diguanylate cyclase (Oceanicoccus sagamiensis), 422 residues
Amino acid sequence: MKKVLIVEDSSTVTKILKHLIKQHPDITALFAGSLAEGQALYEQYGDEIFAGIIDLNLPDAPNGEMVDYLLHKELPVIVLTANYQEDRREQLLDKGIVDYIIKESRYSYNYALNLIHRLEKNQTIKILIAEDSRPTRTFIKALLEKHLYQVMEASNGLEALDVLKDNPDIKLLITDYHMPEMDGFDLVRAIRHNVDKSGLVIIGLSGEGKGSLSAKFIKNGANDFLQKPFSHEELYCRVMHNIEELELIEQIQDTANRDYLTNLHNRRYYFDKGEVLYNNAVNNDTPFAVAMIDIDHFKQINDNYGHEAGDKVLVFLAEELRLAFSRFVVARLGGEEFSILMPGLSNEQAFTLLDKFRGMASAMTIDINADDGELLNISLSMGVTNYLHESLDQQLHYADQLLYRAKEAGRNMVVGDEDADE
Ligand SMILES: Nc1nc2c(ncn2[C@@H]2O[C@H](COP(=O)(O)OP(=O)(O)OP(=O)(O)O)[C@@H](O)[C@H]2O)c(=O)[nH]1
């Protein structure tokens, strides 16, 4: 991860920040106590520095010169200050700082560090602004870019729909009401036909003195609204709050889709995603390989070394499968049974990949922390089929039958469609 430059002359504050940073192992901080030291560090590490947390008053920079220095380098700056002055705060926000934090408690320092995480994540978040007034669009874009979001623009509702179609990974839309071609309400309604509130966040912009527009936006499917004119902080807070809510929902959905032990995808996700891939293959007449994988004599591992050792083997194998088949859907369907969905691969191609993995797996040693330091070997049996049958469920069932042929034939092998036809 890139580095954060922290320039602070108080040894107490520096000590607290150093302590708190230990709880954020993914943040690497460079500490300086003055403008001169801060500039020297910037000159040395410039390209690696991603943001700054800067004390406003330093012994050799009493008027925020360090803040100006980094803003000039176009770096996001979080300002720390001991006292709050409304006009100074406004001035700094106008200059383009990310936030202004009063040195009050641990909470404020943690807030600053969380903001650093936020900035890091923002770089991957796409936001679309639909607004016909170019100056307003440019103003909002510039503000959001200060927080490192990727910003796209549209000058009316129809254009916004096109941009959304081409960029399905846009997370948030900020839309005005009055626009030519298609207004904000029609845009929201059109989007909500296909995408719900957890798929795309919409913030409506309502004009000055038109309070009822805000409620209408929400009733038409927007998540939130902002009344014009708004302050920088209002925009940032609304955007950040909504993005964080979306991330929380994504996190909950992801947890519900994963197996608790191995963190691989679970049965529920496998079938949800699998149905889409299966139908795609049927409709487009493209190859679709489904594999079943089972650890040989797994019961003996549990019996000889205990259930915990068995769990370690499952976690180990899951990680190897995840790495080796990262392009595909890998799931733990239950117990010691795993499945992989490989759209686009012929049976021969899938067989080759699986057999290579089988060979690798049989050569691996697994440390199960046995008292005698024993390392364990495992072997895998697999079945893989490209016969689509009537449903994914049936195809999987057939892959399972091929897997049992592999077991019957002596284990530690892959059985594909060709072997089964013989
Ligand atoms: N440690 C551990 N064991 C599990 C888990 N889920 C299922 N098992 C065990 O997995 C074993 C599966 O054994 P069997 O289906 O009899 O087959 P096997 O011993 O693998 O033998 P073959 O498949 O015939 O090679 C059973 O002993 C289950 O108790 C789990 O989450 N953790």
